[in-house]
Design goal:
mainly alpha; Double Stranded RNA Binding Domain; 6 helices; 3 strands
Length: about 150
């Protein structure tokens, strides 16, 4: 369902160093074919946000469907995962030993893995939302190239 209020700031951005390219590469989850290379994370993010804005305008003009931002989708908190029978057996045994449900055990493991995976990684969605009107300390950090510090604090 398209929403006219969606702008390039509503989407899920990531910026990482590309050893292969020798520059920072920005990506956006909702548009996997789009990316932007630049010498700094700020320039990569800004370049990609501009491209996403242009793509959204083109999609609107052509009447093509616009992918909804991940941040604005509704999630039930439920999904099905198929695992080999032996893995299922071991998980059930471990859950019983810990006196928790299988669901609790698997949920806790997923959450702990996700926490480790995102530690030190910058989720730029919040920064992009403030991109159009950065103020105070954030503006100083953007100008100094220390944007990642602002996100982590």
């Amino acid at each position: 369902m398209a929403n006219d209020a969606w702008t390039q700031t509503h989407y899920t951005y990531r910026v990482a160093w590309s050893v292969e390219d020798g520059e920072h590469v920005a990506t956006v989850a909702e548009f996997p074919s789009l990316s932007w290379l630049a010498p700094t994370p700020v320039e990569a993010l800004a370049g990609l946000a501009d491209v996403v804005r242009d793509v959204l305008a083109d999609l609107a003009v052509s009447g093509e469907p616009v992918p909804g931002p991940l941040s604005e989708r509704t999630y039930s908190g439920r999904f099905v995962v198929r695992v080999p029978a032996e893995v299922h057996r071991r998980l059930v045994r471990e859950a019983a030993e810990q006196h928790v449900s299988l669901n609790r055990l698997v949920s806790d493991r997923l959450c702990s893995r996700l926490t480790v995976a995102v530690r030190g990684v910058c989720d730029l969605t919040a920064v992009v939302r403030r991109w159009e009107n950065p103020t105070g300390r954030l503006l100083k950090l953007i100008r100094s190239g220390k944007l990642l510090v602002a996100v982590r604090q």
